[in-house]
């Protein structure tokens, strides 16, 4: 497939899976989200992590608030993403619901000023610490590929982490089992999460 065909196939797949996900009831979202959180809490990557890079759910994505509360209680730092420009996002500290407000695309974003930093220099927060990034997404396939929303924010952010050689950052996609598809068309800029966690599987 060429780039145009891949883009069209991804767009069609997004529409289908988002429509299926939108049919979930609030109770189904709550129950499956809690199961996903419990499964993530059991991961060695979570247990070893000093820092959690999460996301604030929208459009019936898995809700991770329970996970954030547990992480903060156990002394971990939690950061959530904020869109800075059409090309870039950064992660800012999250400690409670008072730290977020509606931002880009109507998604709740942090209003705090402490930003997660990495790379060279004394402000590198990945130095000597373990980081777990929990990614949202529209769909995943049997090979572990992830379909995002088309903005490329996570792929670009992860590429920056890779270029900074932040080797102690682990990646997990949180998803419902209904988001699994047989195949997701990919190109060279797509970065695959290291693990996918659903309400059924780890």
Walk me through the structure:
The structure is a single chain. Helix 4 (65-73) links the parallel strand 1 and strand 2. It is built from five helices and eleven strands. The protein is α/β, with parallel strands linked by helices.
Q: Which secondary-structure class do the elements indicate?
A: alpha/beta
For the termini, the CA-CA separation is: 31 Å
Name the overall outline: globular
What is the quaternary state of this protein?
single chain
How many whole angstroms does the radius of gyration measure? 16 Å
Tell me the fraction of residues in β-strands, as a range.
15-25%
Q: Could you estimate the helical fraction of the residues in percent? A: 25-40%
Count of extended strands: 11
Q: Spans with pLDDT under 50 lasting ≥5 residues?
A: none
Q: Order of SSEs, N→C?
A: HHHEHEEEEEEEHEEE
In which order are the strands of the major sheet placed?
A: 3-2-1-6-9-11
Arithmetic mean pLDDT: 93
Total helical segments:
5
Biggest sheet architecture: 6 strands, mixed
């Amino acid at each position: 497939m060429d780039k145009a065909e891949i883009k069209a196939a991804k767009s069609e797949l997004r529409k289908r899976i988002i429509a299926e996900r939108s049919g979930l009831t609030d109770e189904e979202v709550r129950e499956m989200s809690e199961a996903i959180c419990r499964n993530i809490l059991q991961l060695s990557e979570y247990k070893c992590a000093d820092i959690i890079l999460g996301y604030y759910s929208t459009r019936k994505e898995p809700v991770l608030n329970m996970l954030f509360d547990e992480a903060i209680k156990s002394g971990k730092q939690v950061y959530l993403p904020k869109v800075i420009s059409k090309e870039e996002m950064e992660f800012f500290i999250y400690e409670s619901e008072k730290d977020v407000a509606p931002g880009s695309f109507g998604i709740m974003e942090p209003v705090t000023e402490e930003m997660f930093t990495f790379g060279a220099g004394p402000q590198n927060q990945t130095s000597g610490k373990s980081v777990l990034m929990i990614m949202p997404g529209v769909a995943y396939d049997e090979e572990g590929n992830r379909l995002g929303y088309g903005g490329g924010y996570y792929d670009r952010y992860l590429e920056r982490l890779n270029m900074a050689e932040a080797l102690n950052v682990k990646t997990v996609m949180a998803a419902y089992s209904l988001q699994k598809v047989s195949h997701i068309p990919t190109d060279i800029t797509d970065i695959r999460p290291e693990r996918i966690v659903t309400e059924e599987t780890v």
